[in-house]
Specification:
Elements: H1 7-12, H2 55-95, H3 98-131, H4 136-218, H5 223-253, H6 258-286, E1 289-293, E2 299-303
Antiparallel strand pairs: 1-2
């Protein structure tokens, strides 16, 4: 018996045609490494109807997934912050307890002992240098021992208070980091929501541009159609510029209100319109341009000579 990895297995089991060669069944015109073409629609993958998402639906689904992940991250961070707040409240309550009050009193007493030992050490050393007697080393050693004992007492008394203060400062630092992460996640969610709106606006603008382009193709010599197409292209360019500037403004300044964004966009449009108005006034002042008005009320500067 041969294994299935051995070609003689297939010879024994007669996987041959009557002409004596291995047969391969496929589709007429198929080639190795090339898949058959499938016309994917815009049907969501999980709808049960097959197909694959494309275009605007795919972009919106990706943005929705990003926002869902950010929401889960914010929930985890909020839970962690609530736990830290509970610990912080516990430590602050302990810091105001009678036990810590007694420890703080011991710290003050130990600090006074340290200060007194320092003063005693200075005066006794000075006195010993003046006397130059036999007790120079003894007097200095006694003062040094008193100073070391006072410092050890201060360290023992400060240990519980310092431990609590370190824990409180660590929790406050963690909470500040959590707040900054939550703000960044909220900012990203705001940006994703704006991108979703802007994707729909761009889709609509692309349809408008396509219609204007078709109108120009159908009437190549029409001045009105050409003007509509130029205005549509300029509007699309302005819209993309405004969207990009708004997203960068949100990324830079964090969470901002819708009223602030409206004010920002209004200022940008006002500056752009004033700049274009000045350029048109300069052209009209040169005397080489004339203003043409079309049936829909739109105007255009046309060079005369």
């Amino acid at each position: 018996m041969y294994s299935k990895n051995d070609y003689r297995y297939y010879l024994e089991h007669q996987f041959l045609t009557s002409d004596g060669y291995l047969a391969h069944h496929g589709v007429l015109g198929m080639k190795w490494g090339i898949r058959r073409y499938q016309s994917y629609g815009t049907v969501p993958r999980k709808s049960g109807e097959g197909g694959k998402e494309t275009g605007l639906a795919k972009k919106n689904r990706k943005l929705d997934n990003k926002n869902a992940r950010l929401e889960r991250r914010k929930a985890k961070l909020s839970t962690k912050r609530a736990q830290n707040e509970a610990k912080l409240k516990k430590y602050q309550t302990k810091l105001n307890s009678p036990e810590i009050k007694r420890a703080q009193a011991k710290i003050a007493k130990a600090q006074r002992m340290v200060d007194a030992s320092d003063a005693s050490l200075i005066t006794r050393r000075a006195h010993a240098r003046l006397e130059r007697g036999k007790e120079i080393g003894f007097v200095s050693d006694v003062a040094l021992r008193r100073q070391a004992n006072a410092e050890r007492a201060l360290a023992r008394a400060s240990k519980p208070v310092d431990s609590l203060n370190a824990k409180i400062s660590d929790l406050e630092y963690q909470n500040s980091r959590i707040d900054s992460k939550i703000n960044r996640a909220s900012t990203k969610q705001k940006v994703n929501a704006l991108k979703k709106i802007y994707n729909e606006e761009r889709e609509h603008m692309n349809e408008t541009l396509a219609n204007a382009k078709d109108a120009v193709k159908s009437n190549p010599n029409g001045a009105y159609e050409a003007n509509v197409y130029r205005n549509a292209k300029q509007s699309a360019k302005d819209m993309k510029s405004d969207q990009k500037a708004t997203i960068n403004y949100v990324k830079k300044n964090g969470l901002v209100d819708d009223s602030e964004l409206e004010l920002f966009n209004a200022e940008r449009k006002e500056k752009r319109n004033s700049k274009r108005k000045k350029a048109e006034d300069r052209k009209m002042a040169s005397g080489r341009y004339m203003r043409v008005q079309y049936k829909d009320g739109s105007t255009e500067l046309v060079k005369m000579f």
